[in-house]
Amino acid sequence: MSRTRLHGNLLASLFFLLIVAIPNLRGQAVGEILGSVFDPTGAVIANAKVTAVQNGTEMTRRTVTSSSGTYFLTSLPVGTFAVTAEATGFKSASSVVTLDVDQHREVNFTLTLAGTAASVHVTAAPTLLNTTNGTLGGLVTGEQVATLPLNGRDITNLAFLQPGVNYDINRGAYYSDPAHSAV
Q1: Widest CA span of the chain, in angstroms?
Q2: DSSP secondary-structure letter at 128?
Q3: For residues 122 and 107, is the Cβ–Cβ distance under 8 A?
Q4: In what order do the strands lie in the sheet with 121-122?
Q5: Does the pTM of the predicted model rise above 0.70?
Q6: Angle ∠(9,13,16) on CA atoms, nearest 5
Q7: 132: region left, alpha or beta (phi > 0 left; psi from -120 to 50 alpha)
Q8: What percentage of the chain exceeds 70 in pLDDT?
Q9: For range 120-147, the mean pLDDT
């Protein structure tokens, strides 16, 4: 009986590990868009409709803001999206967002009252600053791979294009700790 119980516990533990690990093993090129929707006074707008439409494919994702005025559009494929926020009694606002692999882009909206005459449409994305978590990452474009000289065509040298990556001549290893970089 104790052997049967041991096998049962082992299977239960294995099942639990699979449930926890599988969501982290996604090998897809996805990211997310998140943010908040505010009124002109800075108060949050609950139940505002937020829509993201991918340019080129017209793939559409919709959500509504929570009671705290926040929204999340997760597992979006990489690409350029037109994101629009709208609520009853307010004019809609739009922003164009380019989403790269594993990015968490924060896009906040301030909606104006429907009675006002001004309309603002943002067409250029600001410089990307990750304010949602402490990760540092980058993307090497196909153009960079094709045009930059690579000594011996070693693609690992492309890692040096990312901020904070150094090569330690004494160790011969890659790391991203500027406090210990070789001069």
Answers
A1: 78
A2: P
A3: no
A4: 60-64, 49-54, 79-86, 93-99, 121-122
A5: no
A6: 140
A7: alpha
A8: 63
A9: 69
| Annotated domain spans of the chain | 28-122, 142-180
Residue 152 structure tokens = 């011996």
Count the Cβ atoms, other than its own, within 10 Å of residue 21.
9
Sequence-distant (6+) residues with CB within 8 A of 175 are 165, 166, 168
Higher per-residue pLDDT: 92 or 128: 92
Are 157 and 149 in contact by the 8 Å Cβ rule? The answer is no
Kind plus residue range of the DSSP H or E element containing 16: helix 2-21
pLDDT tens digits, one per residue of 105-122? 999 999 999 875 556 666
Distance (Å, whole) CA 16 – CA 159: 36
Q: For residue 116, how many other CB atoms are within 10 A of its CB?
A: 10
CA distance 72 to 93: 17
Distances (CA, A) of 58 to 25, 117, 152, 172: 27, 29, 41, 47
DSSP code, position 90: B
Q: Look at the domain 28-122 and name its fold.
A: Immunoglobulin-like (2.60.40)
